[in-house]
Design goal:
This protein is α+β, with helices and mostly antiparallel strands. The protein is built from two helices and four strands.
Length: 105
């Protein structure tokens, strides 16, 4: 982000996505240009995008290609599976159902 001398955000780029912007430092006064697009402040998509990016980067840096996940049947397992499928591609994620007496139907 670029902040003007008054402490207001002059330009802000998208979270968790690569983006390039050119800003003339001599023009960073007053209000931001009208065509600027501010990223969403809704925190759930931001957390999701951060988790996907972090998992994808970790797998690439470690040179891992596939993931095996043990699922209990709960919502936390489902969310983890969705994040992994988004980050790695569904064809690279293998799920094993590991039910117990505490698992949901």
């Amino acid at each position: 982000m670029v902040v003007n001398p008054e402490g207001k955000i002059f330009r802000q780029l998208a979270y968790f996505h690569e983006e390039v912007a050119h800003v003339n430092v001599n023009e960073i006064t007053g209000e931001a240009p009208p065509n600027r697009t501010a990223p969403s402040n809704d925190y759930i998509p931001l957390v999701y995008d951060g988790l996907v990016l972090g998992l994808r980067d970790f797998f690439r840096k470690m040179n891992f290609k596939e993931a095996i996940m043990g699922l209990s049947g709960g919502i936390d397992s489902a969310v983890c599976l969705v994040v992994a499928a988004e980050a790695l591609g569904p064809e690279h994620v293998h799920a094993l159902l590991m039910p117990s007496q505490f698992s949901s139907e």
